[in-house]
Amino acid sequence: MTRKEDIIYLAGLFDGEGSVGIRRENPGEKRKSSTYDLEITITNTNKAVLLWAVDTFQVGYITVHHKQDDNSHISACWRWRVSCKKAAGLLKKLLPYLKIKKEVALLALEFDALPSGHCGIGRVSPELTKKREALKQKISATSTRNAWRTRGT
């Protein structure tokens, strides 16, 4: 069981450094229709805090976002990714403590509640595809609006 303090800490980290998105993959050889996957991420130059998140919450994985360039002042950066039902479950835990990302988290949970609205392969109705795409666009617009809203504060 995750401690309340850890959930609150992660909510603050996610509010400041996290993002919510819907990843769409178009139909292909193995897919009859587009798939839409909920994904949440936290990007940070401190890999240790992301390792803590993986260890504490037992979800997701870490990838290199960009490597440090020897000829640059830019630090190496890592990204913690959690997708599909695990992302929705984590958002449910964080939701009471989110400030900046609460609106987009609610949209993500609305997306997750759609039938087969997560990590599925198979044919879906045009109506469901339209709902998925609309929520994808709304999440993207909300995330962008929140990013601009917090600049300069």
Describe what you observe in this structure.
By secondary structure, the chain is an alpha+beta fold. It has one domain (4-150): Endonuclease I-creI (Roll), CATH 3.10.28. It has 5 helices and 4 strands; from the N terminus they run H-E-E-H-E-E-H-H-H. The chain has helices spanning 4-17, 47-57, 84-94, 102-113, 126-150, and strands spanning 18-25, 35-44, 61-66, 77-83. The protein has a 4-stranded antiparallel β-sheet. It is globular, with a radius of gyration of 16 Å. The N and C termini lie far apart (35 Å). The model has no long low-confidence stretch (mean pLDDT 86).
Computed Rg: 16 Å
- Helix count? 5
Kindly state the number of beta strands. 4
What share of residues are in beta strands? Answer: 15-25%
Task: Extract low-pLDDT stretches.
Answer: none
* Spatial arrangement of strands, main beta sheet: 1-2-4-3
CATH homologous superfamily name?
A: Homing endonucleases
CATH topology (fold) name:
Endonuclease I-creI
Number of domains: 1
Order of helices and strands: HEEHEEHHH
- Please give the CATH class: Alpha Beta
Quickly give the CATH architecture.
Roll
**Shape assignment:** globular
- Mean pLDDT score: 86
Helix proportion: 40-55%
CA distance, first residue to last residue: 35 Å
Helix/strand class? alpha+beta
Biggest sheet record:
4 strands, antiparallel
